[in-house]
Amino acid sequence: MTQYLPMSLRTLRTLKTLKTLKIKDSSAKTIAKLITLVKIKSHIKMKRISILICLLAMAFSAQAQEKKLFTPEDASYNNYAVYAQRPNQVKWIGDSDAVMKIDGDKIMKYTPGMKSPRALLTFDQLNGYATKAGLEPLKRFPQLTWDNANVAYFYAVGKDGITYNSVSIQQGAVKQITTVPQQSENQTPAPKTHRVAYTIGNNLFVSDRGKQITITDNKEGIVAGQSVHRNEFGIEGGIFWSPDGQKLAYYLMDETMVTDYPLVDITQREAAVTPIKYPMAGMTSHQVKLHVYDFNTSKDITINTEGPVDQYLTAITWNPDSKRIYIGVLNRGQDHLKFNEYDATNGKFIQTLFEDKDDQYVEPQTPAWFLPDNDNQFIWRAQRDGYYHLYLYDIKKKSCKQLTKGDFVVTEFNGFGNNGDFFYTSTEVSPLERHFYMQNLKNGKKVKITQQHGTHQVLPSASGSYFLDFYTSTDVPNNCDLLNVKGELMERLHEAPNPLADYNIGTTEIGQLKSEDGQTLYTRLIKPYNFDAKKKYPVIVYVYGGPHAQLITDTWTAGAGIYLNYLAQEGFLVFTLDNRGSADRGEAFEQVIHRQCGQLEMRDQMVGIEWLKTLPYVDADRIGSDGWSYGGFMSTSLKINHPETFKVSVAGGPVMDWKYYEIMYGERYMDTPDENPEGYELCSLENKADKLEGKLLIIHCTTDPVVVWQHSLVFIENCIHSDKQLDYFVYPGHDHNVYGMDRAHLITKITQYFKDNL
Question: Annotated active-site positions, please?
């Protein structure tokens, strides 16, 4: 910083003194301390103190000028340097209490109580083992999955396909287990046998130590081994290995009865239609069955899930005995779930263990978790008393015991420990935080393991004696700690530096307001880095508002990310409110939107608007809104229903009419158009185009498979017929959002639109 200051001999001497004192803080308190220190050290006179104050002011001003500003590239995930560093493969080594972490070119092993870590394996060693085993040279450490304290497994891509391999630390060797084709997807290894199931196109295959087994040979429109029901109900895949690795359960989805929906590919000279199966609310849905292939008999059987063909099958769970399998059978109306037990050897129905019903909807999100070495007791997560809690079910006794209870949500089940202990994560401390608990099945004694405020993701060791705590908060970018059962810090394995230390970034304030029914609504306000309370600022309300999302959390940047901080940097106040309907707040808070999406959400957003108007630095005549997907629906809804408030709005990938949205999500919250015609009419934006006033920019991706392009096109058509002007922009070839290098263009587009019009 000295190049910005006058260079007299006395100045240079003074600056050397300051350098010795290691100035890092520009606060008034720090400056006062520095003056005192310098006075004591040098016995200088008050005149020199005055000179020092001036020099300090100039130095800190120069330092502030050196701070960087965010770019659209920073805000679009294209500059990893502005995002908090995550640790590189910190995980438990098999069933031991030892931890691995990749540090540069070494895998380091940490053991609780060890004075220092030791190198377990170097990259050069692994590469040497791999090439000796016939693999192509590795470019980086692969993702390792530990079988035990000595052996780990990994995938590697080669010219002849994707190999599944083991590496033995003791033997110092890599061994190829099997190979799957290059074009394969959904690779899923089996326990114990290490067969690998995979899909190519619509069909399912298994590679068994080099032998390729064809499980299905389907015609067009029938899909095996992939996710079904459009990834709702917690479904993330379609392959389910039995615990002994001898049976393979998989989804078989028949989509032939679903209308083809056209997506247009313009990358070719002659644009081609690439259809997808997109069942809209109230229309014909696909049909799903669960199959089981037995490797001992080479037989494929269908599980006899009796009931309507368009019901949903989820929560697939194997019994530890590998002979029984469980399915959550949910009716299309999504208000009645049966958890059924079936014989996996012949597909026959055995019994219904329990049923969950709700006046609005039942939404299973997880499988059951069987207790260790117990094939009769499992834990189930359900929202039976108004909040998601854990229940212990006994198959033999047909009994059910509630394990957790209170006005909080259990967000995750984290496994079992010793002596009947189990682990879970919940919002018990605050809806903004996630903390990790250990509780005993027998006596109910509970211990809170995580101590630091924030959002924790915890992995217990196999013994349940130690924990890997990955956490972030408003003042912690990203840490990983090794904890004991008392929650005490044994070792800090990772501490990310502040990635924004060199940037001019404004303040972020988290607050609370009350909804009309007395519910707490959390808010976040981001101010520009050069904020002046005497000025009036325009406001951008960034909104999502829909289910399965919580925008305000006790995480780094309070969940805002760089994009919203970039908007603040450009001279806007950026405000966000998590309205009723958002996630992890309990049944009453979340289900209030049922059959009327967007209505109560808007009322809550207007509570935030009224509060903003009380702030002396808010320009109430310059308020805008911005959102994507459900947020695009909300941003447009606010614009149309409150034109007197929202001068400018931006809506990306917006739902404009719920009758164009898919069955699984749409019917959960809105029922069908025939069942709820009033609700569909009320919530439609398509039929309210004539009410549009002011500036509205709609952005849509041309190959969006989630909120199909038709939504905004129909709205535009109605605007034309109503003689209403709006602005419109498309991103060709992108799906439900814009990623990659084009995202910087999107951010620039949105920001400039607000600058020009707000």
Answer: 629, 704, 736
